[in-house]
TrEMBL record:
Amino acids binding ATP: 273
E.C. no: 6.3.5.4
One Pfam family, short name: Asn_synthase
Keywords, in A-Z order: ATP-binding, Nucleotide-binding
Homology family: Belongs to the asparagine synthetase family.
Source organism superkingdom: Bacteria
Organism: Elongatibacter sediminis
Protein name according to UniProt: asparagine synthase (glutamine-hydrolyzing)
One Gene Ontology biological process: asparagine biosynthetic process
Length: 635
């Protein structure tokens, strides 16, 4: 992934070279991104008295266009740095009357800047694709920063008393003089217990650093006046009408095919992060139809040493055969071959991060892809959010008067729904009917009953009381979604959390010099599912029903009609914890004092007395998260 940086000093104050160099140094590529020093791209920068913009291309970038960022429009003095992949280049070139020069097309950053010069802020509505950019407007003496509709391009920022700084990663900004790097408390709570999700639309893991939200424009002038506005938010529409299920499936395949095609540039080697699930299956099946055999399609997966003993591994091997991919397999628990156990250890403990360490298997696959010469990795992290339906979806059928379908779906959910199939149909019927018909004043006492699941979890044993109280205070001051009343893109805080996940994959990509692209995080795909009738989202209890229907003739039925959501990531975590057991204990014993404000030290000590990384039912993940937290805070 490419990286962008910027600093603006207020009131004409001269650029602080030390601060700028600290930011540039923090963004230096990891050794895995460019194992050959000759392949490390040159960092490029533009500076005037008070402003600096920088650009670090990915070592995988093959385009000559990237060499000209930051790009200066000489007639006006406007400057831009951008991480961008525009889908409508031809349309923009036509409307802006831009011609190729010497057979070369303008790069995406130049197109964005020329669009701004033509249409001002309205240019954002005309840009299609993934982007994050910073643009210096000398006429207004203001810096404009923007993020794409769904947040595929990451952009974080910090405002100090005398300057504003931006970067693709919050971890770089904390290297600026005057920042402490202290953790953001709700993100910290989430790293200790997942039932306490990070709050706020701009939250990063660092309290002093904020993230731009998807679809946002930020402007700050040379006097330090800052304003933000949401330039795009998904509008809910009436469901589309399809004559048949086949018509809906064909429409989905068309939309998704375009999304995948946009991310497969000619002449660029792209790999596929292949799990045994539906999201990566859909990407793989579509990629194969766009690149028919014998053209190679490289897939990267983690599999169990004995695939027959693991449904995820069986599904992966089935997809490898059906899609005729060139498989690159990382075996667990043996971790034989490359990448191997030593790589796993360095990925986890060499540069720990609360979000990134939850992506150990994708990180190993990115390392394998880098070694195989892949420039781009397709993945499907956004699929769950994009295809989701309301949790109490059957209640909607009741409200719409379709009782027969509601009853049928209750029975189907008890058989096939990934979360409901442990419940009886009668229990589900009662629960859905209560949700549909009971007035709110009747629901309140039921929610307080002992048998009803608590909405607010009790203080977790491992979380300190002070952190728990701080979390609850922040939550009470926030809006219903923890957003402080801000308007959000699709699915509110759910999509904001997903955008954080996309940023995590982006950081993994930068670490290994691989451009991460998710076709599910495509505006047209999102719009399709927003307008998809509920009966096609879930049918007979099957989630992602239309995805299953659209590809059922292309892959094995056992892959299409899987009910579980088992993944192999936890096996890699366990092998890591076994391999580094002495280091884990030493880190916790020596580092508990560093996290005493956030964890219950007595409970952690009790936990460690009985901890055994070989125990499948033990607290291996909890201990892993604690070690990650300690190492990350030590920085």
């Amino acid at each position: 992934m490419h990286s962008i940086l910027g600093i603006l000093h207020f009131d004409g104050e001269a650029l602080d070279s030390a601060a700028w160099h600290s930011l540039v140094g923090a963004s230096a590529p990891h050794k895995w991104a460019a194992p050959e020093p000759a392949r490390i791209p040159e960092f490029r920068e533009w500076k005037n008295r008070s402003v600096a913009l920088g650009y670090r291309p990915s070592p995988s970038a093959r385009s000559k266009h990237e060499d000209v960022l930051p790009w200066v429009h000489d007639p006006t003095g406007h400057v831009i740095t951008a991480e961008a992949r525009l889908d409508n280049r031809r349309e923009l070139m036509s409307r802006l009357n831009i011609r190729k020069k010497g057979g070369e097309e303008p790069h995406d950053g130049e197109l964005i800047l020329r669009a701004y010069l033509e249409w001002g802020r309205g240019c954002l509505d005309r840009l299609q694709g993934d982007f994050a950019f910073a643009l210096w407007d000398p006429r207004r003496r203001a810096l404009l920063c923007a993020r794409d509709r769904l947040g595929a391009g990451a952009l974080t920022y910090v405002r100090q008393h005398n300057r504003f700084a931006l970067a693709s990663s919050s971890e770089w900004l904390i290297r600026l003089p005057g920042l402490t790097g202290r953790p953001e408390l709700t993100s910290l709570a989430e790293s200790i217990d997942w039932r306490f999700p990070a709050l706020g639309t701009r939250t990063t893991c660092r309290q002093e650093v904020q993230s731009m939200v998807p679809g946002e424009l930020l402007e700050i002038d040379s006097e330090g006046r800052l304003s933000t506005s949401i330039w795009w938010a998904l509008e809910l529409t009436e469901p589309e009408s399809y004559a048949t299920e086949r018509e809906a499936a064909e429409h989905f395949r068309e939309v998704f095919s375009v999304a995948v095609q946009r991310r497969l540039e000619p002449g660029v080697d792209a790999g596929l992060l292949l799990s045994g699930g539906l999201d990566s299956m859909a990407i793989g099946a579509t990629s194969r139809s766009l690149r028919p055999a014998p053209e190679p399609l490289h897939s990267f997966s983690g599999v169990y040493d004995s695939p027959d003993e693991c449904i995820e591994s069986r599904s992966i091997m089935s997809l490898v055969a059906s899609l005729q991919t060139v498989p690159h397999l990382i075996h667990v628990p043996s971790l034989a071959g490359e990448p191997g156990r030593d790589d796993l250890i360095e990925i986890a403990w060499g540069q720990p991060h609360p979000v990134d360490n939850s992506l150990l298997l994708p990180a190993l696959c990115c390392l394998a892809a880098r070694s195989a010469g892949m420039d781009v990795m397709l993945y499907g992290a956004a699929g769950d959010i994009v295809t989701s339906a309301p949790h109490m979806y059957v209640a909607d059928h009741f409200r719409n008067g379709d009782w027969r379908l509601a009853v049928s779906e209750s029975f189907g959910a008890s058989r096939n729904h990934v979360y409901f199939r442990s419940r009886s149909a009668s229990w589900l019927l009662a629960r859905f009917m209560m949700s549909a018909f009971l007035p709110e004043w009747c629901k309140r006492p039921i929610r307080k009953a002992p048998f009803y699941p608590a909405r607010d979890p009790a203080p977790p044993p491992l979380m300190s009381r002070s952190l728990y109280d701080a979390y609850q205070e922040i939550k009470s001051e926030s809006g219903p979604s923890g957003s402080n009343g801000e308007r959000l893109p699709p699915e509110g805080s759910n999509w904001n959390h997903q955008a954080s996940g996309l940023s995590g994959f982006g950081r993994i990509g930068r670490r290994f010099g691989t451009q991460m692209r998710d076709p599910w995080a495509d505006v047209d795909v999102v719009k399709f599912f927003v307008g998809l009738p509920l009966k096609y989202k879930i049918r007979d209890g099957w989630t992602k029903y239309l995805v299953r229907r659209a590809f059922r003739d292309r892959v094995d039925k056992d892959v299409i009609w899987r009910r579980d959501k088992n993944h192999l990531g936890w096996r890699f975590t366990r092998e890591l914890m076994i391999a580094t057991a002495p280091f884990v204990r030493d880190t916790i014993n020596g580092g508990l004092s560093d996290v005493a404000d956030y964890v219950n030290v007595d409970e952690v000590n009790k936990l460690m007395q009985h901890y055994d990384p070989h125990d499948d039912n033990g607290p291996c993940q909890v201990v892993f998260d604690l070690v990650t937290l300690i190492l990350w805070l030590k920085g």
